[in-house]
Design brief:
The protein contains nine helices and eight strands. By secondary structure, it is α/β, with parallel strands linked by helices. The longest helix is centred in the C-terminal third of the chain and has 24 residues. The structure holds zinc ion.
Length: 210
Amino acid sequence: MRLILLGAPGSGKGTQAALIVKDFGIPHISTGEMFRQHIRQGTPLGLLVRQYIDEGKLVPDDVVVEMVAERLRDKDCESGFLLDGFPRTVPQAQALGRHVEIDAVLNLNIGKELLLYRISGRRVCKSCGDTSHVEWLQGNYGCPCGGEYVQREDDREETVLKRLDVYEEQTKPLIEFYKKGGKLIEIEANRERDDVHLEIKQALSKLKTK
Ligand SMILES: [Zn+2]
């Protein structure tokens, strides 16, 4: 099963990714994690990526595509993979298509209001890093570790809204691209984790028997 997983920040993408790779016994390929690994190991690619990041530039498509394509040639990708964080643009998707055929693209759909509630209500303990939500904390911002729950700059409502707009704008053409190619599966992610997981499993099992 060769899959791509799309979903806005806060859509539960990480959680569902972990469940899917377990279901199908396929590797979870996150480009963000690959970048960090190359940088940590100081590979030629890592040094190149580092340079772009230090200059505040986006890593060019051909560099990202080459890195992913190389990874997909590894033995553990023979029976499939789950791509997370890639492709981000139509040119990347087209380039990927020249290397490998994708079976399905899962798009986790979640209303903006719920995303905003989840992210802007998030609080993180300054001392131990534990994550909670204003709904569970109920006005008590003391952590059992003795630390204090605070809101991260990134989680402020204005920042979240801006990030969601950017995400939507960037992803819309990509979603159209895969819809036209008949690969897109829309998943209603505005529900409990297990319900979302079940819908994904059902959608993918139909795909297999086709
Ligand atoms: Zn704490």
